[in-house]
Amino acid sequence: MTEFTPLAAAFGGFLIGLSAVLLMLFHGRIAGMTGFVGAVLPPVASDWSWRAVFLAGAIAGPVVYSMATGNVIAIDEPVSKAMLVVGGLIVGVGVTFGGGCTSGHGVCGMARFSKRSFVATCVFMATTFATVFVIRHVFGA
Known about the structure:
globular
């Protein structure tokens, strides 16, 4: 069962939106996590440093939250490590062909009324719904 926490979700969404707006304001860049990760891996981009700071903040945020509230963030891996690797590779291929990820298209692109991002986000969501349906109701996992 998925636990829904509306206040924490709303606050997290606010922080994601704020970080995307500030990044656009100060750097003129879209907050796409895939682009950030790709820029800090070899061969690194010339402006890799601010991207590394953004990624570090995304990683440090849950750690700071956990320390401040005393709530341990549970991470559940309902599949094997091999399936996580396969899933990661599939996502990587999708991100490459889709020209970006859900953070770039879904958060930033849709906020800018990009038709391309709207279509990409609809495809991401439809694929997600179909995958969850098949895994839960066809395979019974």
